[in-house]
From TrEMBL, chain A:
Keywords, ordered alphabetically: DNA damage
Protein name: Translesion DNA synthesis-associated protein ImuA
Gene3D superfamilies listed in its UniProt record: P-loop containing nucleotide triphosphate hydrolases
Any Gene Ontology biological process: DNA repair
Membrane spanning residue stretches: none
Length: 205, 471
């Protein structure tokens, strides 16, 4: 004891319960999924920060999780950059999800260049959201992305395999997307205690 | 009318010095036959070593060995004069190269844009110093007077005729730009200054000298106009820097590259154009040049950006032999349209516009690396998208759900690995272009809960081929 602990760190760590007389202000970056918004402390994606989306495999609704956000950003004229996506985005599907394809840019790059490109895009501040698929990103690479997202005031999303969940990560929010049963789990979130109960998430229905 | 004369007292030397990373090292410019090399010009450091113009090379080498030498090339001087004219073209449309090693241009009509003369003069001096050229600047009501006054003054600004008479009146006869014979004859007659010369009756002057003398005097006072041919900027940019040593790493090429790109930017500002494509030639001794093409998606002329892009391309090139020279050629110079910027940016101030970011990415990752996505009206999934430079809006087509991810190559699914949720949906198309497909598509779900889009060619019994993920 005796160590001075900043009040903010206690709040952020979620160790002090705070009575909330008023509802928190609406987040500037809602996810578009009401139940997820309700579970997140800021009511949406953490602003200007890295969000990690952990998926067991492709095709479990990981894009549908982001499509409402991307649609909202592209309608506002923000640029959306996919850095080294694993497959080709099917224009018709993205379009029918509401994403304006004119605002979408795809960057093809190798493993190392992809991290560089993602960092450049985040740092530049000219993009609304940057999506990347780091294959073997270590803690340092992710921290760089997080700092770049803060510098450029940009939303960053990194898709990683679910088995990375046991490793620590500097991301502000870590979400696991599970297929069986179809649900989301918040593994870590900055600014509040992680919502432990799974959130129902039914892609494509 | 107000004319500016910029005299470059050591144009050849400055041109040679600015191509060197250490401009303070001793340098001598040589000319003459191989048997008798003569020093034409020396810089301050070489002068301290005791070198003088007119010395023979052997005499100079007897004094010191610590100086570099370069060829004094008359073509090179003409080239740099052209370059400076291109630079000055930015300030005036009437730029003349009538006098050697000198620029003369009309400025009165441009002062409304560039501000009063002292301000513009400071700007001219600053830009010339940045480009690395020593200079003397004089402005006068007519070009001939400006040129003559530049022989004796630096920074003189003559505005009206009375001042001009006084300023010219003090000029010695030898410096009036007269033919040497006439100047000698006049000084032997005891005429020292222009004022004394003007005091003589015209008819006696006309009797003793040829008509050129009176004409020249009238031109100086603006009583007779001087016909000048004006400079027209060329439609291409071509600049070469020769290296005096073999360069093996790209680090050593960065200095000449920065010089080339900043010169290109100065040229583009003068022409009010941008550059969209330019070529870098790395010259080797015996092998053909290595060509590096630098392409941009929109016209640009920011020197730092041009340098960074060229550097990005240069760093990836492997050359077969040492480099002896660098050349920059720009053929395509479209009009420059400045970026539209918001007055109140929502983003932080250090933000980089998307256009510049895209160029930076392309410079490192390759021209094809950054693209948009366009929908192509075709039912075959593999034909329904096109990578394009700029994405375009596509019509929203009604129809069944399509997967968010499309696999580049269909993947054969193992028997029993997935169950069919929906289907089939038949896609039959492409009989006209040889890529005929007849497929039945199914919405499938794997045991892990992944939803995919798979097909089986009509009439075949093989495994389902996975073509997309409903991600």
């Amino acid at each position: 004891m005796g160590a001075v602990v900043a009040l903010e760190t206690l709040f952020n760590a979620g160790r002090v319960w705070k009575g909330r007389p008023t509802a928190p202000a609406a987040s500037p970056q809602p996810t578009g999924h009401a139940m997820l918004d309700a579970a997140l402390p800021s009511g949406g994606w953490p602003e200007a920060a890295l969000t990690e989306i952990l998926i067991a495999a492709q095709g479990v609704g990981e894009l549908q999780l982001l499509w409402p956000t991307l649609a909202r950003l592209s309608a506002a004229g923000e640029r959306i950059v996919l850095v080294a996506p694993p497959h080709v985005p099917y224009p018709q599907a993205w379009q029918s999800a509401g994403v304006d394809l004119r605002q979408l840019s795809v960057i093809q790059a190798g493993e190392r260049d992809a991290l560089w490109a993602a960092e450049q895009c985040l740092r530049s501040g000219s993009c609304g959201a940057v999506l990347c698929w780091p294959q073997q990103a270590d803690d340092r690479a992710l921290r760089r992305l997080q700092v770049a997202a803060e510098t450029g005031q940009t939303l960053a999303f990194a898709y990683r395999p679910l088995k990375e969940a046991i490793n620590p990560s500097p991301a502000a929010l870590r979400l696991a997307v599970e297929a069986r049963p179809a649900q989301l789990r918040i593994l870590k979130c900055r600014g509040g205690l992680a919502h432990s109960a799974p959130i129902a998430f039914a892609p494509g229905h | 009318m107000r004319w500016v004369c910029i005299l470059f007292p050591q144009l050849a030397l400055d041109a040679a010095l600015r191509q060197r990373p250490e401009p303070d090292a001793a340098l001598a410019l040589l000319s003459g036959t191989p048997q008798r090399r003569v020093i034409q010009a020396v810089n301050a450091a070489a002068r301290e070593l005791g070198l003088r113009p007119g010395q023979s090379l052997t005499a100079a080498q007897a004094l010191s060995k610590n100086f570099a030498s370069a060829e004094y090339d008359a073509d090179e001087i003409a080239h740099w004069q052209q370059f400076l004219a291109a630079w000055a073209y930015r300030f005036s449309s009437q730029v003349s190269l009538h006098y050697p090693r000198t620029l003369v241009f009309e400025i009165e009509s441009s002062l409304g844009l560039f501000g009063p003369w002292p301000q513009l003069e400071a700007r001219l001096r600053q830009e010339l110093s940045e480009l690395g050229f020593r200079h003397r600047i004089v402005s006068a009501p007519n070009p001939a007077a400006a040129r003559v006054l530049a022989n004796a003054y630096d920074g003189l600004a003559v505005t009206d005729l009375e001042q001009l008479r006084q300023a010219l009146g003090r000029m010695p006869v030898e410096r009036l730009g007269l033919p040497p014979g006439a100047a000698t004859a006049l000084s032997r007659m005891g005429l020292r200054t222009f004022a004394q010369l003007r005091g003589l009756p015209r008819d006696t002057l006309a009797r003793r000298f040829d008509a050129g003398l009176l004409k020249h005097l009238d031109t100086l006072l603006g009583e007779r106009s001087l016909a000048l041919a004006f400079y027209q900027p060329p439609d291409r940019f071509d600049l070469r820097i020769e290296l005096n040593f073999d360069v093996l790493s790209h680090q050593a090429l960065l200095f000449p590259l920065r010089r080339l790109t900043s010169d290109l930017a100065a040229f583009l500002c003068g022409r009010d154009s941008g550059v969209q494509r330019f070529d870098l030639h790395l010259e080797h001794v015996e092998l053909p040049d290595t060509l590096i093409k630098v392409g941009l998606l929109s016209a640009e002329r920011e020197p730092a950006m041009l340098f960074e892009l060229a550097r990005g391309r240069l760093e990836q090139v492997q050359v077969p032999a040492p480099v002896r020279g660098v050349r920059l050629v720009a053929e395509d110079l479209p009009r420059f349209v400045p970026q539209h910027r918001e007055l109140f940016d929502e983003r932080p101030q250090q933000s980089l516009p998307w256009e510049q970011l895209r160029e930076r990415l392309r410079a490192r990752l390759g021209d094809e690396a950054v693209h948009g996505l366009r929908f192509h009206a075709d039912h075959r999934p593999e034909c329904s998208w096109q990578p394009v430079g700029d994405s375009q809006a596509c019509p929203l087509l009604p129809g069944p759900r399509r997967p968010g991810w499309l696999l580049r190559e269909p993947l054969a699914l193992q028997e029993g690995a997935a169950r069919i949720l929906m289907g089939p949906e038949r896609i039959e198309s492409g009989w006209w272009d040889g890529g005929d497909v007849r497929r039945d598509y199914y919405l499938i779900e794997t045991r892990g809960g992944q939803q995919g889009w798979a097909y089986r060619p009509v009439g075949e019994a093989g495994p389902l081929l996975l073509q997309g993920w409903f991600a």
